[in-house]
Design goal:
binds iron/sulfur cluster; Rossmann fold; alpha/beta; globular; 21 helices
């Protein structure tokens, strides 16, 4: 089921081709003002308007066939969707970018680093070129083995995602979530080696055909467990499952047609908290903690899940949320999108630096997000910029609150 929150513009709803979409561009330049990549470089070739114009120029025969330089302009983009969101003419700019990436990949113009990423995923079933059976290494240093380990049938499946499975800096996200599940008695299963990369990195490289094997495999693995609900802590896995899996499988809706409800962890946690399923302390017993929240592009603007993380924060004793200047639908990308880490890391790092400075300007000492890639990218930026802001996932903050409640009980 798609999120039923107030919907943001759904860029994937368009049925127009890239050429048709470009015809509505009036060159107003509004998209430049929000494009995080352009803001860092102030280089028109790195702007959404220029990318739209390039597609038009090729279509109209003003430019010859695309070349590597042309291709680079389309892959040096975070696919954050900010341009589409502000466009007054309704041009689905990031859909144009996705479709054009597909055309370029077909013409053999996928940059080498990205072709290598796709080859790694095809061979290893994950982005890290590690044995896929090692996906659950993060359970090793938990206080107790999670109850979802080795379970063959369950109500809920937790899809961990490649980043949290293989990047030690991100282990703390699934570690927090399974501890919350266990303390609440959630009947869940971990997929382990049966979980394959969701396919999103291949899709945004323009290679949807290659992603289809992964999609089919993942859905079959979940169905074999009798799962009714699948929960994600990665915003991109969540976005891809909810927006592109149905089309790839030829169904309208995963819940209606296959009986699998798709939920982001923040939605699941918000429901648990509001149902009183988690034992927390009273507000009067805890010290105030000021936090700010970063909306991941794939979860907020592109996924429509904006209120759920804020509902979670509102339930946590002592937590006071201060918003950054750019928030919700207008959130600024963390710099971790679009596979730029593999292709043009300097662009992502500059964007991440700008976002962590926005977080510091709020005066909050903790930046919360709801995506392991955002958390990783922003924590690296805080270190690089020497900014004293801690970066945590929503699930980690919930676990902190549970630990505090437990320790005060023992006092
Ligand atoms: S905001 Fe829309 S109409 Fe204006 S330049 Fe960008 S794509 Fe074109
Ligand atoms: S998707 Fe984001 S990074 Fe890419 S052109 Fe649009 S605003 Fe810029």
């Amino acid at each position: 089921m798609m999120s039923n929150e107030t919907s943001v513009k759904d860029v994937n709803e368009t049925t127009m081709s890239a050429d048709e979409e470009t015809r509505h561009c009036v060159r107003c330049g509004l998209c430049l003002s929000v494009c995080p990549g352009y803001r860092e470089s102030l280089n028109e070739t790195d702007s959404p308007r220029a990318r739209v114009a390039l597609v038009q120029a090729i279509t109209e025969g003003v430019l010859d066939a695309p070349n590597e330089r042309y291709a680079g302009a389309f892959f040096r983009c975070l696919l954050c969707g900010a341009c589409t969101f502000v466009c007054p003419s309704g041009v689905a700019v990031d859909r144009i970018l996705e479709l054009t990436r597909g055309d370029l990949a077909e013409q053999g113009l996928l940059p080498e680093a990205l072709a290598e990423l796709d080859a790694r995923i095809a061979q290893y079933r994950n982005i890290s070129a590690e044995e896929n059976e090692g996906r659950l290494i993060w359970v090793d240093n938990l206080p107790a083995p999670p109850t979802g380990l080795g379970k063959e049938q369950a109500e809920v499946a937790y899809f961990v995602g490649c980043v949290s499975s293989f990047f030690p800096r991100s282990y703390q996200v699934p570690q927090a979530l399974v501890q919350i599940f266990d303390r609440t008695g959630v009947d869940y299963a971990l997929l382990g080696g049966s979980e394959w990369c969701c396919g999103y990195p291949m899709f945004i490289n323009g290679e949807m055909d290659k992603a289809r094997d992964l999609i089919r495999h993942n859905v079959e693995a979940v169905q074999a467990m009798g799962v009714k609900k699948i929960v994600f802590s990665c915003a991109s896995c969540y976005h891809f499952w909810s927006h592109s899996y149905p089309t790839a499988l030829g169904v309208n809706d995963l819940e209606d047609d296959l009986g699998i409800e798709v939920m982001h962890a923040t939605e699941f946690l918000a429901d648990l908290l509001e149902a009183g399923a988690l034992p927390l302390q009273g507000d009067e017993d805890v010290r105030e903690q000021v936090v700010t929240y970063h909306d991941p592009c794939d979860l907020g603007r592109k996924g429509g899940v904006i209120e759920a993380p804020r509902r979670v924060l509102a339930q946590l004793p002592g937590v006071r949320l201060v918003e950054m200047a750019e928030n919700r639908d207008s959130s600024h990308c963390c710099g971790g999108g679009g596979n730029l880490e593999s292709f043009a890391p300097e662009v992502g790092q500059a964007v991440a630096g700008s976002r962590i400075r926005q977080a510091a300007e709020t005066g909050a000492k903790t930046l919360i997000s709801a995506c392991q890639q955002c958390e990783r990218t922003l924590a690296n930026a805080a270190r690089a910029e020497r900014i004293r802001v801690r970066v945590k996932d929503v699930a980690e903050l919930v676990l902190d609150a549970l630990d505090e409640a437990q320790s005060s009980e023992g006092d």
